[in-house]
């Protein structure tokens, strides 16, 4: 594997291999010396053109625990804010001898474009409304640890689908792993053109949360992405919560052992009530520690082996 | 006894059969006990892949002699290898330490074959990240020579002089379905 740009790049075997490596990496978090020397002498650059706390710090810690040198570049305070083009910024950074480039960018397809310009391994850490493959990997990894296998299990993904790269990557990965997926959103936040995709990929769509929840083996709540909305998607926050939020009442509809995921950051009281976010079946914090392990596994698979190898 | 057909490469010569291996492990177990003056503070760590079952067997034997269980674990050194970059990505395995950890314990590393010594070098680095043992010793089923580093084993099942190009294959019941060491 040279780059990780999209879930489409991954075979089921490779996904399971990443999960197995992640399970090994998980143990490092409990060790006294949280360090493995696998990426000693390699340099990883986190290039974030969008705000991020958990993904960026997760990649940063993952790289550091594998002994890589990690530097962070954010759009604010970089030459990008002086008008430098993405291509020039990326090429400049790569001219410094970078082995891995973790990139987040508001434009869909940015990571793939960048991968065509540089020699370094590129990891897509979120490109616009397109994909966020490591998030999907860590979600599936968390669920697989909880549920055993995802084969035939029913996962409900609820919320702002239109703006969600997490949803796109997750649907691809979960269906690849044999899960039965139902996506739920208000009509205004259901992506246009989802029908042919859902038929082809074999997942269901619904507008009715209450009908979907009782049958779900796991539920994934998505953040309402107000920063991507120019208004008009729903009348009020209150109305969204009543129709599509995971409220205390809806929590009761859910199977008591069905894990509740949220990619964070959570809008408490909007898409997820505090009762649900802090419920015993909530795996939100587990997702964070899984995220580290999965990102370590991804960096290991991309950067540890010989150049250009599988 | 009818001669068994060669299992893998033709001309593979069996140098240790199941009974030889069993005797060698028994001797190693006693040597470890003698050297350590008992099984207190002893931790056996098997190196992936075939060192792991060997370590368990030695632990079982020691436990049978001493009448008390011995701490045993497994150590994966993939991340510490010096040839990581020269090979396709290797799959890492689990490192599992016994509950008591390795601090101030006498750690005996158990592996199947001692060759260049590079795996053991990696194992020593890995141990340093996991704790500070009182002492580290090395037990191997086969020492085939050709060291590239100043490393030697404390307990050896069999010294097997070999040419560098020859292949020493260790098979163990738990993984391969039979116990044998062949040279080809």
Automatic annotation (TrEMBL), chain A:
Q: Which GO terms describe its molecular function?
A: amino acid binding; aspartate carbamoyltransferase activity
Q: Which residues bind carbamoyl phosphate?
A: 54-55, 104, 132, 135, 264-265
Q: Which GO terms describe its biological process?
A: 'de novo' pyrimidine nucleobase biosynthetic process; 'de novo' UMP biosynthetic process; amino acid metabolic process
Q: In which pathway does it act?
A: Pyrimidine metabolism; UMP biosynthesis via de novo pathway; (S)-dihydroorotate from bicarbonate: step 2/3
Q: What is its EC number?
A: 2.1.3.2
Q: Which reaction(s) are listed as its catalytic activity?
A: carbamoyl phosphate + L-aspartate = N-carbamoyl-L-aspartate + phosphate + H(+)
Asked if Nucleotide-binding is a keyword of the record, the answer is no
Q: Does the keyword Transferase apply?
A: yes
Q: Which family does the UniProt entry place this protein in?
A: Belongs to the aspartate/ornithine carbamoyltransferase superfamily. ATCase family.
Q: Which PANTHER family match?
A: ASPARTATE CARBAMOYLTRANSFERASE, ORNITHINE CARBAMOYLTRANSFERASE, MITOCHONDRIAL
Name assigned to this protein: Aspartate carbamoyltransferase
Q: From which source organism is this entry?
A: Nocardioides gansuensis
Q: What is the lineage of its organism?
A: Bacteria, Bacillati, Actinomycetota, Actinomycetes, Propionibacteriales
TrEMBL record, chain B:
The chain positions of domain Phosphoribosyltransferase read 15-155
Q: What is this enzyme's EC?
A: 2.4.2.9
Motif PRPP-binding, residue range(s) on this chain: 107-119
GO BP, sorted A to Z: regulation of DNA-templated transcription
> Which InterPro entries does the record cross-reference, listed alphabetically?
PRTase-like (IPR029057), PRTase_dom (IPR000836), PyrR (IPR023050), PyrR_bifunctional (IPR050137)
Q: Which domain of life is it from?
A: Bacteria
Reactions it catalyzes? UMP + diphosphate = 5-phospho-alpha-D-ribose 1-diphosphate + uracil
Pfam families, A to Z: Pribosyltran
Query: Family per UniProt?
Result: Belongs to the purine/pyrimidine phosphoribosyltransferase family. PyrR subfamily.
The protein's job, in short, is: Also displays a weak uracil phosphoribosyltransferase activity which is not physiologically significant.
The UniProt GO MF terms for this protein read:
uracil phosphoribosyltransferase activity
Which keywords label this protein? Answer: Glycosyltransferase, Transcription, Transcription regulation, Transferase
| Name recorded for this polypeptide | Bifunctional protein PyrR
Q: Lineage from the top down? A: Bacteria, Bacillati, Actinomycetota, Actinomycetes, Propionibacteriales
Transcription regulation is among the record's keywords = yes
């Amino acid at each position: 594997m040279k780059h990780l740009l999209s879930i489409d790049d991954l075979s089921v075997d490779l996904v399971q291999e990443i999960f197995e490596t992640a399970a090994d990496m998980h143990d490092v978090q409990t060790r006294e010396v949280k360090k493995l020397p696998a990426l000693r002498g390699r340099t990883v650059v986190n290039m974030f053109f969008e705000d991020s706390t958990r993904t960026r710090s997760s990649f940063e810690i993952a790289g550091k625990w594998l002994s890589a040198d990690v530097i962070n570049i954010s759009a604010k305070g970089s030459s990008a804010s002086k008008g430098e083009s993405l291509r020039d910024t990326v090429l400049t950074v790569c001219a410094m001898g970078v082995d891995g480039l973790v990139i987040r960018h508001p434009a869909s397809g940015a990571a793939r474009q960048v991968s065509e310009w540089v020699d370094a391994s590129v990891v897509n850490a979120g490109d616009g409304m397109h994909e966020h493959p490591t998030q999907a990997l860590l979600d599936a990894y968390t669920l697989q640890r909880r549920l055993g296998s995802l084969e035939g299990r029913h996962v409900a993904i609820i919320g702002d689908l239109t703006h969600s790269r997490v949803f796109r990557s997750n649907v691809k990965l979960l269906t690849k792993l044999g899960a039965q997926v139902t996506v739920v959103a208000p009509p205004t936040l259901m992506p246009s053109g989802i029908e042919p995709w859902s038929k082809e990929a074999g997942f269901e769509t619904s507008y009715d949360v209450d009908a979907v929840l009782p049958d779900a083996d796991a539920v994934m709540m998505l953040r309402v992405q107000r920063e991507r909305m120019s208004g008009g998607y729903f009348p009020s926050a209150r109305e969204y919560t009543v129709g599509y939020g995971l409220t205390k009442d809806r929590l009761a509809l859910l199977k008591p052992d069905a894990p509740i995921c949220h990619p964070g950051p959570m809008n408490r009281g909007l898409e997820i009530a505090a009762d649900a976010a802090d419920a015993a079946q909530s795996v939100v914090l587990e997702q964070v520690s899984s995220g580290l392990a999965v990102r370590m596994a991804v960096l290991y698979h991309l950067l540890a082996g010989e150049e250009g190898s599988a | 006894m009818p001669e068994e057909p060669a299992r893998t490469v033709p001309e593979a010569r069996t140098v240790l059969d199941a009974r030889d291996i069993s005797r060698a492990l028994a001797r190693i177990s006693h040597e470890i006990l003698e050297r350590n003056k008992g099984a207190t503070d002893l931790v056996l760590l098997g190196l992936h892949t075939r060192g792991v079952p060997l370590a368990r067997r030695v632990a079982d034997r020691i436990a049978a002699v001493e009448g008390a269980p011995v701490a045993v674990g497994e150590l994966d050194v993939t991340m510490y290898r010096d040839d990581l970059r020269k090979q396709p990505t290797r799959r890492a395995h689990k490192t599992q330490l016994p509950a008591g950890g390795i601090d101030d314990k006498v750690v005996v590393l158990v592996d199947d074959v001692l060759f260049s010594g590079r795996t053991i070098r990696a194992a020593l680095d890995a141990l340093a990240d996991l704790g500070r043992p009182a002492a580290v010793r090395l037990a191997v089923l086969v020492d085939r020579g050709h060291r590239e580093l100043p490393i030697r084993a404390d307990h050896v099942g069999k010294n097997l002089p070999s040419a560098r190009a020859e292949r020493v294959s260790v098979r163990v019941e738990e993984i391969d379905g039979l116990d044998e060491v062949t040279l080809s």
